[in-house]
Amino acid sequence: MKSYFFHLMPYGHIDVADLDKHDTAWLTLPNDLYDPAKGAGLYKRYIGELELADELGFDGICVNEHHQTAYGIMPAPNLIAASLARTTKRAKICVLGRALPLVNNPISIAEEFAMIDNLSDGRLIAGFVRGIGTEYFASASNPSLSHARYYEAHDLILRAWTERGPFRYTGRHYEFDYVNIWPRPVQQPHPPVWIPSQGSVETVDWCAHPDRKYTYLQTFSPIAMAKKGFDRYREIAAKHGYTADASQMGWALPMVVADTDEQARAEVKVHAEIFFNKLLHYPLEARLPPGYTSVASTKALIEQKFKLRKSYQTLEALLEMGMIVAGSPKTVRETLIKRQQELGFGHLIAMLQIGTQPAEQTDKSLRLFASEVMPYLAKAG
Q1: CA distance 156 to 152
Q2: Phi and psi (nearest 5°) for 235?
Q3: pLDDT tens digits for 342-366?
Q4: What angle do CA 52, 108, 63 make, to 5 degrees?
């Protein structure tokens, strides 16, 4: 199993009273609650934590994209990835991911990613997402075109990376007289592509298709839901006549490591509960704008994940569902090895900084994970 450090870059100085007052951390939370001086300090801290993970030997460091929210102040993950490409040495740089339907020029993403791949000497992992529902309001994008724009943008980016230019492109949503990117990616035929998802049936099936065999990442999910997604991936692969490898599946979840189980859980309790109950909270109408998902996926999300989020989630409940891991190095590594045996994933995406968690906790958790958990995981699976 390979281990990656994933950072959301949350605005950790947010006052919980403000989240309660506005009933959301997304879209309508007034931006005068953001202090630029404190934010600048957070960027320095968070980039430093990602650089530390490289020094500690993590297989990869991961960033992602969100807009108009205190949940994550990283609307342009390509900027963070470009910075990390120059200051890190060996870890893969995973952009998980760029929201394809929200941009009007997919060629710009092909160029950005090719640049990062060059700057990092071929260490980029490219992640593609559709973006969550609130971001269609933030970008004034039509959610009913989400799937079509996503697939068309994906196909065009892959062509831009692999097909010699210049060539003309005319599609339903995009049209270019010249597709001829400079630079081209270092990794040939193109950088690895990973697809994060919360369990969409269409996404799993698309990733598992033999034309792609993309690594599918299950994010922020109970164990039962993660197992369902991974089992479906293996099932679809078998229908296409091949056996899915563990490297085609990854699991992303928050975790904390401390000297003892009691210390880990005492330290993380308030931050985990703020994260899951406050920072992740946004109105249902903003989660699923009309046309954003298929009927089948909407039904599954409402029945499983959104139903779960309607009730207050305590740390104890989150631990029981497997949505967070917290404990001593021994407890964490035994838990993760057991989960790997149950679920069969090959990539662990460890979010070792959780919401409002202070720097000293993150630093200790990173170091303990790297020295006393990661070596055991490398032998698992």
Answers
A1: 6
A2: -65, -45
A3: 999 999 999 999 999 999 999 999 9
A4: 20
